[in-house]
Amino acid sequence: MGKRVEARRRPTVRAVLIGVCLTAVFVGGGAALVGWPDSGPTAEAADDAAEDAADSAESSPEEPTTAPRGSNVDPAPGDSPEAARRIPVPSDGPGTFRTARSSGSPVGSGDTVRRYRVQVEEGIDLSPRQAAVEIETILGHPQGWTSDGRNSFQLVASGPADFDVKIATPGTVDEICGAAGLLTRGEVNCTVGRTVVVNLKRWVLGSEQFDGPVTEYRALIINHEVGHRLGRGHVTCGGDGEPAPAMMQQIKGLHGCVANAWPYSEGGTYITGPAVP
Rounded to whole angstroms, how far apart are CA atoms 197 and 218? Predict the structure, then answer.
């Protein structure tokens, strides 16, 4: 049925998920990006200590550090402290963003380096630095887009960037995506131009369709939307019992497939299925 069409060499350096929350839903504003520039200078990973202090100051001292019994956020084994915290999901925000003051060396072995920034809407109880570390880990995973041997990604705090990843409240997501003619209804993510827009609701709560920890679902969000930035369109399930492609809109149902967050299998085979018109 046209599934698994291209086996690719996997990177030699294997990134290990450091216990970060990964989830996703996708509205397909699937935009192919052409003519992205190669990266500028590389740098060792550097987190701004001042940002840590600011994040701590912004967090409510009365906020529990673990999700209470009965919470709709269930930390999975291995989740990071950020994942384990019960992060509130306000319906709306100011529409302004904080940029993570973190940067790193390129991840992946590909010659084409995609530079990106991570931004979190102001008023959200989520550390931009932690979000950036999480997203950098996803993009460097050996089953992620770097497995094609062509693409690498570099987190930057300033300077030229090929795309931004914005984590925003449902209302702000609706505004950004709606301006491009996309209907998100406060529920899902989208890609608009050079911006990946992540719905905080999905980042925190995941999806009932996805049978796995919220960390994995966050990986699906990033892999799906960044896949659109790489020119990948929507596909559907390749066969009963097969892993769902990352470019499948899994929040709309799995259609016989098994929930999966990654574009490539452990063996380095691209996971795909029939194209969706």
Answer: 13
